[in-house]
Structures are given as structure tokens and as C-alpha cells.
Amino acid sequence: LLPEIKHYLSVYKMFVSTSTAQAMSFRTSFVLMIFMDVFFYLSTILTVEFLFDHVASIGNWQRPQLLFFISFMLCVDHLHMLLLSNSFWRFSDDLKTGDLDYTLLRPLSSIFIVFFRYFKPSSILNSFITTGSMIYFGLKLNFSIGNWIMLPFLVTLSFILLALLEFIISCAMFWLVEGLGINFLRMQMQSVSRWPDFIYSYYTKKILTFVFPVLLIGSGPVHFLLDPSQWYWIVMMLIACVLCFLALQALWNRGLTHYDSASS
């Protein structure tokens, strides 16, 4: 197992190297992407600040709790932008042009190559904003040492669940081929996950927690951090990750049998 992990890491190192070289070839675009991400992060936080200029609380949360939640989700979104975001748009092109053939011939997991092939180096600098804001609002909540130790694990777990759900949605491209609508659906799912579960109606909340667990991505870890007695959120997230992984494997294999090379 260890040699295989090392092999995948060495391949991913090359993915990062080639993606960085390509991105740096267009320096104006590279700088603009940095500013775009900064604007998105700041506007998201300022939106919450604006809301609390008019209300005292939202649900059971006041300003510090919701700002920490938003910062937590921005950290998850940052990992997504850094590691995955570019690959989803390329997957549809590979299906239409037949370039997926070359992926399937390589002696590596096709899921790994398709979804981790394109790294976004312009998002690296924004790590300071997302991580800094999460730490800042976490300090305002007087987190315990245990909370701070758990925080990196919970961010990673949320990112994994988000990625698995997006991979599952992207499998629809095998049947629809045109991925524009699928990618916009995927982005709408991200928007839903960026707000806490209690803002949704009863049935919507149940569906988005237990059927398609998009609300677990942010609400699960933050509920646990604010009240460690709600440990069951983390158990639900772990179960959701396992079930989503199994569903992804089944859908991906089924999709590959449906795939008809455009180059043949």
C-alpha cells in the first residue's frame, strides 16, 4: 500500500508542476484569478456582517457563530478551488473529444486522473485569508485545545464529502456528455452547503441531510465544534463518506461501460 501511495503522490507532484507552469504562462490571468478569489471570500464575509446589522441572531446563532461557519466553509471551498475546480470543466471536454481514452489507458485510477489532474496555483496565496479568518472567528468563540486539534481533520473530512458528492454529480456527464448544465448544478449544490442547516424547512433539511447529504458538509463539523455533545454529526459524516464512495464507484464503472469514445 505504501509504495502505491508514493507512486500516486509522485504523479500528483507532476500534475502540480505542469499546472503551475501552464498558469504562470498567462500572468495577467493568474493575477486576476487571485483577485477574483479574494473578492469572493471578502464579499461572502461582508454579506453576513450586513445581515447582522439588521438582525440580532439567525436561528440559534449570533454573529460569531455564523461568521465562523462561513469561514469554515470558505476554507473547504478554498481546498476545492485549489485541488479540484479546474478538472470538472475539463472532464466534459475529454468526453466530447475522446481524450478520456488516454486516461483510461494509463495504469492509474481513472477517477484520480480525471478529477485531480488540474491544480489551481493562483489559489495558494488565498490560504492566508481563509485560514486566518477561520482562526480569527474561532478565537472569538473561545475554542478549547481539543477543538483546535480537531479542526484540520474536520476541514479535511468536509472537503472529502464535498468532493465525493461533486464526483457523483459529474458522473451524469457520461450520459449527457454536455457538462455545462451539470457543472452549474454542481455549483448550486455548493451554494446550498454554504448556509447552516437550520435555515431550511423541515423536509428540505431532512432530504439534504440524509438523502443527499450536502448540509453535512458545513453544518456537521460546526455543530460539533460549538457543542461536542453533538458528536453524532461526525459519525453521520463518516457514514456519508463511505456510502458516497461506494455510490461513486458503482456510477463511475457503469458510466465507463456507457462511454463511447468520440475518437473511434
Written description of the protein model:
The protein starts with a helix and ends in a 6-residue tail after the last helix. The longest helix has 27 residues. The protein is an all-alpha fold. The chain is built from 13 helices and no strands. The relative contact order is 0.12.
How would you sum up this structure in a few lines?
The protein is mainly alpha-helical and 264 residues long.
Give the SSE map:
Elements: H1 2-24, H2 27-51, H3 63-83, H4 85-97, H5 100-105, H6 110-116, H7 127-140, H8 145-170, H9 173-176, H10 180-193, H11 202-211, H12 216-226, H13 232-258
- What is the H/E string? HHHHHHHHHHHHH
Unreliable stretches, pLDDT < 50, 5 or more residues? none
Largest sheet: none
Number of helices: 13
Distance between the termini: 36 Å
How much of the polypeptide forms β-strand, as a percent range?
under 5%
Oligomer: single chain
Query: What radius of gyration results from the CA coordinates?
Result: 19 Å
Number of strands: 0
Label the structural class.
mainly alpha
Which descriptors would you attach to this protein?
264 residues; mainly alpha; 13 helices
